Amino acid sequence: MSGQRLWDDVDGYIVDTFGLDDDVLQAALEDSAAAGLPAINVAPNQGALLMVLTQAIGARSVLEIGTLGGYSTIWLARGLPAGGRLISLELESAYAEVARRNIARAGLEAEVDVRVGPAIDTLSTLEPPFDLVFIDADKDGYPAYLEAVLDLVRPGSLIVADNVVREGDVVDATSDDPRVQGVRRYNELVAAHPRLRATAVQTVGTKGHDGFALALVT
Ligand code: SAH
Ligand code: DHB
Ligand code: MG
């Protein structure tokens, strides 16, 4: 076995071994699919990574850009302590409605606030500080999101961005895909920023070949 089939198998093994699925997560994906949302949520082990990172840095306030049906939101919120807060930004009001129901079923209604509208507009209304930021909305918007997020973080905050490898397309400097150019620019910005210590990690699994960029605010 090789390639995608092997990656799917290993992701399944990881989900089983580490116990990364439950009724609430299943129902969130089922209701998202039933409502016609695209199945582009993070994989379970990626969601669990977001939870572990949130808890590891002791984050009390989390900002997510790109809610979809709230699958990654549930994982992030599970890493919060009692009294923690999460704000998630979503362009599509119909997606946000699905997400709110999924989040309520997960018992996270009190902690999570889903805000509808173009993220770049909502970002300018938010009160800092956020301890962890997960960027996962439109990829051409990542450079502008980074700029806005830098006004909302403090030293010790962690900024995580999804989809920064894109099946390896990220290495193509001449790509005419605005999503590729968006993540390329994002990676360059976090790499060069004097306030950030950053890296990117490639991932393979059910979501193919992709990656996360991780940037610590110093
Ligand atoms: N984080 C989710 C997946 C997000 S998919 C998960 O892993 O479960 C990307 C989401 O970003 C989509 O729901 C899309 O509607 C939203 N989006 C796209 N452009 C946006 C914008 N300009 N502002 C806010 N959200 C946007
Ligand atoms: C896709 C995957 C993502 O993780 C995302 O945030 C947006 C789109 C995709 O596979 O198309
Ligand atoms: Mg993504």
Q: How would you describe the overall organization of this protein?
A:
Helices cover 41% and strands 24% of the residues. It contains 8 helices and 7 strands, in the order αααβαβαβαβαβαββ. The chain has helices at 3-18, 23-34, 44-56, 71-78, 93-105, 119-123, 142-149, 178-192; strands spanning 61-65, 85-90, 112-116, 130-135, 153-162, 196-205, 208-217. It has a 7-stranded mixed β-sheet with strand order 3-2-1-4-5-7-6, with helices on both faces. Strand 4, helix 7 and strand 5 (153-162) form a beta-alpha-beta unit. The longest helix has 16 residues, at 3-18. The radius of gyration is 16 Å and the shape is globular. The termini are far apart. The protein binds S-adenosyl-L-homocysteine (SAH), 3,4-dihydroxybenzoic acid and magnesium ion (MG).
Strands ordered across the widest β-sheet: 3-2-1-4-5-7-6
Tally of extended strands?
7
* Helix-residue proportion: 40-55%
Main sheet record = 7 strands, mixed
Rounded to the nearest angstrom, the radius of gyration is 16 Å
User: Given the C-alpha coordinates, what overall shape results?
Assistant: globular
Mean pLDDT: 98
Unreliable stretches, pLDDT < 50, 5 or more residues? Answer: none
- Give me the secondary-structure category: alpha/beta
Write out the distinct hetero groups bound to the structure.
S-adenosyl-L-homocysteine, 3,4-dihydroxybenzoic acid, magnesium ion
User: SSE string, helix = H, strand = E?
Assistant: HHHEHEHEHEHEHEE
Percentage of residues in strands = 15-25%
Amino-to-carboxy terminus distance: 43 Å
Tally the helices: what do you get? Answer: 8
